[in-house]
Amino acid sequence: MKKLNRKSVPNVLERPIRIVQFGEGNFLRGFVDWMVDILNEKTNFNGNIQIVQPLPNGMGTYINEQDGLYHVILEGVENGENTQKTRLISSVKGVINPYRSYQEFLALAENPDLEFIVSNTTEAGIVFDGNDHSEEILPNTFPGKLTVLLYHYFNYFGEYHPKELKVLPCELIEKNGDTLKDCVLKYIELWSLSRDFAQWVESAVIFCNTLVDRIVPGFPKENIKTIKEKLAFNDNLVVKAEPFHLWVIEGPETLKDHLRFKNAGLNVIFTDDLAPFRTRKVRILNGTHTAMVPIAYMNGFTEVREVVQNEGMREFLNQIIFKEIIPTLEMPKDELETYANEVLERFKNPFVQHKLLDISLNSISKFKVRVLPSILSYLERFHKVPEGLAMAFAYLIVFYKGSHASQKIPIMDDITVISFFKEAWGIKDTGLVVGKILSNETLWGVNLDKKVLLSDFIKEKVMAIAND
Asked: How confident is the prediction along the chain (468 residues), in pLDDT tens digits per residue?
């Protein structure tokens, strides 16, 4: 079996580095880097990616051993049919570890072809740390590293900068671009960097808010031997992902001319307002995930795909999505229904083992953000209870009892949340239990027991479920 590198693979094109990427994990390699590879093939983008390892230890050595080459395997359901596609990714140049060579990292800013900066350093990665005292020493945080890279670029090229830099963070936080820019400006102030540099960052560097959507299970450890034999390469960096992909980018109209994703047939949306797309994803995709877990698990299901294959559960999902969630959203109905059908198709993916208990982690805070807004909006608009979502709420309350029908339910949440539910379920009267839970404004942000229609419905259903 051949080693995978640029010597063993003929005709791999060398391209200028146009993108610096903070993060070498599975998601970026199976999402952004996969897109750039297609962009290179189908348009005149002609640009490769230089990865920066954001932490001292990571995948950099392994990626460099393969000269940045690896395969992405897409497995899932498209148009009702199971599909498997494999692509060799050649858009990655390699990985620089700034902890080993700070100067090599700074030299990336001396590249006149540099135009884009992307990142995925986890939700906790976009932070400001006042302990990063100086730009002369490698900062600990990703925003600190970005600040020194921009500062070196600003000083190296002097008054005339060869490109307008665009920053596209992929971290899963709201307003990720705005938050990252705020952190950079705080470092400029902390380090007393020049006012001209601060003004340049404010006015000339484009920080985009983005939304990313693709399930990337990552390295297929369970069948990697078979995959390597089929590829005929010893690829230790294989990334598995679902076919569905969506990247929503909030930024100036001119971005379309620089990143011609549409010409490459990729599902990328440029917009001046990301909020509706984020709400759509949180309410339909994430909200449905969160709502289904307690009712499905307590009825004997263990994985998402089992749920959507069951006729009764499928009816429940259709009820909450098409009749209760979609009517509360401010987007064209046909767009919402198209997205919802894509979500349900993704749930059927036979190649992804999506455990319900894994999704159940921190269900209370997830329910507050993903499901409760749909319930309250429906109540306000139609003056009646969305019975499917409210039923899911009732099951959630019983789920957090920690047991049902003589079976223990493993609860994974903050200890204060678990303790509260244990205390509430210590009350003998079920109606009082539900009233105590619904009135906890710390959990829900509002006293839900005062929403009489909702409260009465949930109390009735909880009593029926708990006594089942």
From this structure: 899 999 999 889 999 999 999 999 999 999 999 999 999 999 999 999 999 999 999 999 999 999 999 999 999 988 888 999 999 999 999 999 999 999 999 999 999 999 999 999 987 899 999 999 899 999 999 999 999 999 999 999 988 899 999 999 999 899 999 999 999 999 999 999 999 999 999 999 999 999 999 999 899 998 999 999 999 999 999 999 999 999 999 999 999 999 999 999 999 999 999 999 999 999 999 999 999 999 999 999 999 999 999 999 999 999 999 999 999 999 999 999 999 999 999 999 998 888 999 999 999 999 999 999 999 999 999 999 999 999 999 999 999 999 998 889 999 999 999 999 999 999 999 999 999 999 999 999 999 999 999 999 999 999 999 987
Write phi, then psi, for 434 (nearest 5 degrees).
-65, -40
Same domain, 111 and 219: yes
Are 47 and 19 in contact, with CB atoms under 8 Å apart?
yes
Distance (Å) of CA 409 to CA 154, 177, 396: 56, 39, 11
Is residue 314 exposed (0-12), middle (13-18) or buried (19+ Cβ within 10 Å)?
Answer: middle
CA distance linking residue 171 with residue 185, whole number of Å: 19
Residue 376: alpha-carbon gap to chain centroid: 25
Taking the C-alpha atoms of residue 122 and residue 154, their distance in angstroms, rounded to an integer, is 27
State the pTM of this model. 0.90
Are both 109 and 60 inside the same structural domain?
A: yes
Q: Compute, in degrees rounded to 10, the torsion defined by CA atoms 179, 182, 186, 189.
A: 170
Residues 290 and 371 in one domain: yes
Kindly give, in sequence order, each residue whose CB lies less than 8 Å from that of residue 115, ignoring residues fewer than 6 positions away.
18, 19, 47, 163, 164, 165, 166, 258
Boundary of a domain, candidates 213, 243, 271:
271
Residues 246 and 294 in one domain: no
Residues whose CB is less than 8 angstroms from the CB of residue 92 and which lie 6 or more positions away in sequence, other chains included:
29, 33, 48, 49, 51, 63, 68, 69, 70
User: How big, in percent rounded to 5, are the helix, strand and coil portions of the chain?
Assistant: 50, 15, 35
Looking at the fold, whether 46 and 75 belong to one and the same domain comes out as yes
* Domain of 302, in residue numbers: 275-466
For residues 248 and 279, membership in a common domain is answered with no
- Name the domain boundary from 229, 251, 271: 271
The encoded tokens of residue 58 equal: 């990571």
